[in-house]
Design goal:
The structure is a single chain. With about 150 residues, the chain is α+β, with helices and mostly antiparallel strands. The strands form two sheets. It has a three-stranded antiparallel β-sheet, with no helix packed on it. The longest helix is centred in the middle third of the chain and has 24 residues. It starts with a strand and ends in a 16-residue tail after the last helix.
Length: about 150
């Protein structure tokens, strides 16, 4: 199980500790009351999904021996009214969070290989996590990581 520790610093700035002594800063843009010292939480979410897609495609192509040279994943996120979501199955009232992505592949790939990699992009672990049921629970400091 991965674990991160987020500690507030000043204003809306936070320090995120992860791995073996690694750190990064998060913040909100100045327009939202922060100082712009690092990515905001939704940017991190998009970065996690985009990174996972890229890594998954690179690993898959490597395993297949395909000539994939570079993956570029562009992401954007927003909210729309649930009634305006054509591809949504939910009938819930309110807003739906919508993530859009475009995956660009560079390399000497056939049309079939490109199509297969686009299919595989939907199967990265973070995509599967975000589209499955998620449970957020509390744990105590003395409980072991599962």
């Amino acid at each position: 199980m991965s674990e991160v520790t987020v500690t507030s610093l000043s204003n809306l700035r936070n320090e995120v500790q992860y791995g073996e002594g690694q750190k990064l800063l998060t913040d909100e843009p100045a327009a939202l009351g922060g100082e712009g010292a690092g990515p905001d939480p939704y940017t991190l979410l998009l970065a996690a999904l985009g990174s996972c897609i890229s890594m998954t495609l690179n690993l898959y192509a490597r395993r297949k021996g395909w000539a994939l040279e570079r993956v570029r994943v562009r992401m954007r996120q927003g909210r729309i009214h649930s009634k305006d979501c054509a591809e949504c199955e939910s009938t819930a009232e309110g807003f739906i969070h919508r993530i859009e992505r475009a995956v660009e592949l560079e390399g000497d790939l056939t049309d079939e290989q490109r199509a297969r990699l686009q299919e595989i992009a939907h199967r990265c672990p973070v995509h599967r996590t975000l589209t499955s049921e998620i449970v957020v629970t509390c744990f105590s400091e003395d409980s072991p990581a599962a």
